[in-house]
Amino acid sequence: MAQTSPQTLAVNPTSLAGDGEGQREVVDSATLWKVIFASAGGTMIEWYDFYIFGSLAAIISTHFFPRDNPTAGFLLTLGTFATGFVVRPFGALVFGRIGDIVGRKYAFLVTLLLMGGATALIGFLPTYETIGLAAPLALVLIRLVQGLALGGEYGGAAVYVAEHAPDEKRGFYTSFIQITATLGLFVSLAVILGTRLLLGEEDFKEWGWRVPFLLSVVLVAVSFYVRTRLKESPIFSKLKAQGKTSAAPIKDSLGNKRNWKVILIALFGATAGQGVVWYTGQFYALYFLQNTLKVPFITATIVVAAALALGMPFFVFFGSLSDRIGRKKIMLAGNLLGAIGFFPVFWAMKQNADSPVVLTALVFVLVIFVTMVYGPIAAYLVEAFPAKVRYTSLSIPYHVGNGVFGGLLPLIASSVTVATGNIYAGLLYPITVALITVVVGGIYLKEKSDVRLWDELERPRES
């Protein structure tokens, strides 16, 4: 494998025989880090926008649903939260098509504006006491828009960075996109905590909860400006110049039997398990602390935020490690450890509910499982699909795995817990899905960390 210098960290500058139409383009180190910063920053803001709602679910339920049944209101809020996940695959199709036809950059500029606008609207939305049932209906509609936007964002950012990065360090560079989901959750918790401490608990619950939503306007404006200064990815630009882009990426993705096989293997052998491990280790852990163990809001928020901060460097560690030993074994090991470890970790949380330090250590363990399944997955998904339908194709299994299997986890697990009265019963769902992923992935998932993305511009690419 060719070595790259510090000044040419991205695409290997190998010339092709013939007329040079497939010449590989070199991306210098400064440009590559600019690409990563702009892509990761914007994606982090979109996750921040998306997760403020989940982080404030307990408070939002008191403003947008009747207060006479707090448990029902909380579950309805989780259901509203889940709607944003359910539509993410549709957003993947809509914006994936745009990204594969028009370009990666244009698609994730549009998704950023949609997400920012929808989030700000929540900050202005009248409550149930003011407009009655129109309040929760409007909330659901806004969540649908957020879900559509996020369905298009991740694929664009992951593909954009991967198509700038060198083949031998693809896992390392794309892992910075993988940090963004957890970083978005961390920032949402930090902003919520800071606002609550500044305003006081009573004012925060009454009107201060709107501030984190309104802050999104400023964050989106900055990110949009940075992204407008980016160029299209070199691989997509070359693909378009050669006339090799797809005119119908949805049809080419879903109408191709071979591509369907890759999508289904990616879903059940990677992203479904990754989704449930992610949401169990972060969101469900937060809900478990707040609503089951009755840990005070501020304490629970600090515990989870501290664990996320400690765990975030491991996304890069495992992304980089996957460049050396492969993506498959790391991702499946994370799923297996999650399936084995969920019960004992949540049991230990119950036994140490009065010790924030121990709770932080236990949530940190869950976050490590998250970093193992999530750190390498962007690189794996990029490698699994050809460039002409890459945005569309990888977005489908990612957003079904995360949006459906993962996004529905808080609602499913909380509902099972309420129905059975067993505080650990909800863990059966993520454990089952993670084990299915271990089995399917162990049998069918192919290791493709040696794929060289520019090769398909030289010759037909095998699936």
Would you mind describing this structure in some detail?
The chain is an all-alpha fold and 463 residues long. The chain has one domain: Up-down Bundle (Growth Hormone, Chain: A), CATH 1.20.1250.20. It has 21 helices and no strands. α1 runs antiparallel to α7. The protein is globular. Residues 1-22 have low confidence and may be disordered.
What are the SSEs and their pairings?
Elements: H1 29-55, H2 57-64, H3 70-86, H4 88-101, H5 104-124, H6 128-131, H7 134-162, H8 170-199, H9 201-206, H10 211-228, H11 234-241, H12 249-254, H13 257-292, H14 297-311, H15 313-325, H16 327-351, H17 356-374, H18 377-384, H19 390-406, H20 409-420, H21 428-444
Give me a quick take on this structure.
Helices cover 76% and strands 0% of the residues.
CATH domain class name: Mainly Alpha
> pLDDT under 50 segments (min length 5)?
1-22
> How much is the radius of gyration in Å?
22 Å
Instruction: Quote the beta fraction.
Output: under 5%
Number-wise, the strands total 0
The 3D shape can be described as globular
The CATH topology comes to Growth Hormone, Chain: A
* Structural class category: mainly alpha
Termini distance? 22 Å
Order of helices and strands: HHHHHHHHHHHHHHHHHHHHH
What count of helical segments does DSSP give?
A: 21
In CATH terms, the superfamily is MFS general substrate transporter like domains
The whole-number mean of residue pLDDT values reads 85
- For the report, how would you describe the main beta sheet? none
Helix content: over 70%
Count of domains? 1
- In the CATH hierarchy, the architecture is Up-down Bundle
